[in-house]
Design goal:
The chain is an alpha+beta fold. Strands 3-2-1-6-7 form a five-stranded mixed sheet. The longest helix has 20 residues.
Length: 167
């Protein structure tokens, strides 16, 4: 029996929607959609502004229309540094829920590093080495030894965050 499922990633630079078709132990990507929301650019003195929260909500509501038109009712929403590295995380999560109906889980930096590495390793044969994911608001680093992640960390420095603060 095939099931459709979607995941939304609220990042500091982009908000991504990926829909999957799942059966047994296999899954295939049905489609991907990305909105360049640039949320890191809406952070002022450590706070995601109302304008930034509204930008996130309008993107999520766009995705909601897509999911509704494809009859995909199961969707998980995750946020990374976009909502993790601000001082009004709880307020932003509550506003997003009230304006979109999406419950957003804010992923820890450690988990983001682990998930990013595991996702990348699905398409890579690397058994040993260092995985680095430079995002808009953070950079994740994971160290692999014999296919095991032995260390993982997130640093609150990303391309869009650095651009917004210093350029």
């Amino acid at each position: 029996e095939k099931m459709k499922y979607a995941v939304i990633d609220i990042g500091s630079n982009s908000i991504c929607l990926v829909a999957y078709e799942i059966n047994e132990n296999n899954f295939k990507t049905l489609f991907k959609e990305k909105i360049m929301a640039g949320l890191a650019g809406y952070v002022k003195k450590g706070i995601l502004t109302d304008e930034g929260i509204e930008k996130a909500c309008s993107s999520l509501n766009e995705f909601k229309h897509i999911l509704d038109s494809l009859s995909i009712s199961q969707c998980s929403v995750f946020a990374t540094a976009s909502l993790r590295n601000i001082s009004n995380t709880e307020e932003a999560v509550e506003k997003i829920y009230s304006l979109t109906g999406f419950k957003t889980e804010v992923v820890s930096g450690y988990d983001e590093a682990v998930f990013s590495c595991k996702g990348a390793m699905k398409d890579t044969d690397m058994e040993n080495g260092v995985f680095i994911d430079i995002g808009g608001g953070s950079t994740e680093i994971a160290v692999l030894d014999k296919n095991e992640i032995i260390q993982a960390v997130s640093i609150p420095l990303g391309s869009l965050k650095l651009y917004s603060e210093y350029v």
